[in-house]
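Table 4 source record.
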Amino acid sequence: MSRTIFCTFLQRDAEGQDFQLYPGDLGKRIYNDISKEAWQKWMAKQTMLINEKKLNMMNPEDRKVLEKEMINFLFEGKDVHIEGYTPPEA
């Protein structure tokens, strides 16, 4: 059964996550405030960031970089700046 939350990223009601995807208090905040749709948008950015910056998810420093970008993107309204990436023309 899906749950509806007020997604703070989309600023509207949307389908919430089925379970907590991220550990700790940040994970709880994502579960409560970030919809599946917003999380998918972040996952796309995350993939580009990992590839562009050649981040290693086994490296704690790289995980910190990614977490900071995730917080900026999901909660601070800051888009992820990807070097050499040009968004497709609308």
